[in-house]
Amino acid sequence: MGLKVNAERTMPTVESKFWILNIMFLCLLNISTLVVPVGGFALRTCRISYNVALCVKTKLTAVPRDIPSTVTGFDLSLNRISRIQISDFKNLLALEKLDLNFNNISQIDNGAFASLICLKTLNLNNNRLVKLGEDLFNGLTNLTELRVNRNKIQIVASTAFQSLQSLKLLDISSNKLRHITNVHLILQQLPHLRTLSIRNNNLTTFDSWELTNSSIELSYLDVSLNPFTVFRITADVFPSLIWLNLGGSSRKYHMKWEVHNKTFLSRVSTLDISGLQMDIGDMKTLLQTVNSSLESLRMNEMKHNLKELISISCTIPTMSKLQLRRNYKRISPVSSDVFKLCINLTEIDLSDNHIKNIQDNAFRPLKYLRILSLGQNMLSSVPEATRNLAKLAELDLNNNNISSLGCDDFTNLTMLRELSLNQNSISAVKECVFKDLFRLQVLKLQSNHISTLNNAFKNPLPNLRQLLLHTNKLTALKRGEFQGLESLSNLSLHHNQIKELEGGCFTGLTNLTTILLQNNFITERELNNGVFNELVNLRRLDLMENHIKYENTSALPQPPFSQLSSLETLAIPSQHRRKKSHLPYNFLQGLTNLLFFNMRNIQLISLHNDMFTFTPQLQTLDMSSNDIGNLSPELFSPIRNLKSLYMSRISLGSLDFLVDANLTQLEFLQARKNQFSVISNDIICSTPALLYLDLQGNSFTCDCDNLEFIHLVINNNKTQVFDAYNFVCNYPSDLKGMKLLDLDTQFCSVDVDFICFVSTTCFILLFMVVSYTYHFLRWQLVYAYYLFLAFLFDTKNKNKQAPSQYDAFISYNVHDEPWVMGELLPKLETGQGWRLCLHHRDFEPGKPIIDNITDAIYGSRKTICVISHRYLESEWCSREIQVASFRLFDERKDVLILVFLEEIPAALLSPYHRMRKLLKRKTYLSWPRAGEHTELFWEKLHQALGTREELSEDQLLLTVGD
Known about the structure:
The protein is α/β, with parallel strands linked by helices.
């Protein structure tokens, strides 16, 4: 179903309104959840992940057309698309997010987005659009976020945004707009717009009179980096504005501020004037304009006397947050008079200012300060000025030159909750450093040179939840090293040089849920001493890139994780790279709730079939980059809940083990760069829940063995085979290098079309023959049928030599019964004394009729056929004469007497071939010809009955005079 774009914007028909309402209803119900998730199918250049089509950085020059209609996200960023055509997104009715960032788009056809009525987010950043034409976004009635920054837009048509009635965010920054009237058009058409960014354009003036009837809901406005010469507001055009960025341009333009009525910006709570070049008088006027509402002020990269501006801004009674980044040499050193008026500040950001010195009383006036950022400076020690901040909750000292920490550095900071000391040059911490930080929750010490902890965490830090110590030079963890951290839940120790884990080194960490120990020098000896036994609530343990190695699969007397029943994620190390290894079969004992197990690249050569007996809940297993070779179905029998399986580069020769592995819940299978060449249908059928299959880098065989797999790739709408259109054949040699999906599979299967053609042709011919036969030869067929029956009956009875019971069997039609009973019977039985057999009188009751007929004919010396028109039409009479004829010709006895009651033309006898033959060879009796000479008729009949049966068939026995 497609909705036509009406270029003249005529009124929609009732039918089109109906369809629009229906599709909008589907959007509100989230159409992606109403249909089966289409994870399946093979795409030529993209892949599907969580109902999002990912086509990132695939060198596309046009929008692919094989995207399933149920996707809700479509990422086409980092490609080479130059034009968006009207049919590109025609079928993607459920699409909610479209990303076209970093392409070469210079042209978008009108109506190209018309069918995307569920779309909420559209990203057109970093393209080459010059103009936003009329009705460009027609149909996007549910769009809430539109980004078109970093293009070359110079012109915005008057109706460009007319359809975007739900739009709340518009970013049209870094373009080439020159007139504020463009902004007026935007605001006038977007009544619900809340965020507008038009930074870094070529706007030189800002006059409020050009923005009459603008959006009353606009809350966030960014007009920074424009070369404004004047900023004039003479009317209350932004009554709801709370966030305003006026940051200056890199050009040396001085902006003149003309806002004389303070109520025009009376709700602005966040103001950014970073880099703004303005006379100090206008700057004061600007700050006075927001004097009653300002809470947060950003003055980064200022060119003015910064201390004076700080003093001016700190007189605003409502202001609580001040950001002063990249003001090199304008604030350093930080002296006591810089913040003397800032008594109400709760947050100061002084990052990236090259600060080397801070006077001891510099922050003394800041009695209510809660957040202080001093990162990315040149401090060599923790400034003493911070000790006076009794209410400080967050202190950021990252990326400085601090080399040591003193016992008094954080004295009196009893309210501190987060401390960042990362990326300094600290080599050691003392036991007394954090003694007063009872409320500390986050401590960042990563990326330093710490080699020993010196019992710094033995003293209680009862509220510490996150401790980051990674990327240091720790070599050992001593017993009770962290016993004061009873609330710690996250501990990172990766990328150190840890060789020794003393027993009890994690004592006290009963609430720890995550510990990261990758990239150290831990060996299997450290694991076997039970160091993890006390971490009963641990959820994640990462031991990647260590030196753990086992020689065989024999059971361990003390499995290293036997007490970690709550562990959900385990990553074991990359072992000695050049040495093959094993895993003890009870290595995972105790991990009854393990969900994710990573054993990638540990040089395994085998896996014991009982390895996963202890992990029945396992859902994700990564065994890639090993040398396992063969896998047994029994290995997977305990983990029936497995959903994701990674088996790349493990020298697999086949996936046949999946047939009996019973992985019915498996949804994701990655088996790149192995040695199998054929994927059978049994493998596919054994994983009915499979949504994603990645088999890149295998050596496929181009023959009929892969026919079912090829059909899966092309026709299956459930399982997505990643990059299937690039699978290359290595066998046979004459097809090496050919794409697997280019294989001609017609010779692999019977041509169903041809079979249907032949079958249909034969049926039609048979129907024609039957129709012709029935129409022209039906009587001959009937005659042949009865002739065959008579032949059977004759064969059955020809050897019967029993004496005749009757002199004659009378074959007649019931309509001729009056003549038989009134004329024939009195003459032959009463007058001449012959014994006659009549069917109504002498047939045996209950016996089949055909048997009675046969017995009567063969039990009589003669058979008298009383022939009339009715006789010829009778089925049973025909059978009687057929049986008598076979007796006549088969036994060569004179047993048949023909008596015609009516004159019957020869033409009417044509269907009765046998009777015509008899008439040509034998004389017959005719009752009509007898006329008044009936005595001669009866005499001739008497003679016929009295003749012997042994005479030749060709001898004429009866003569009837005219």
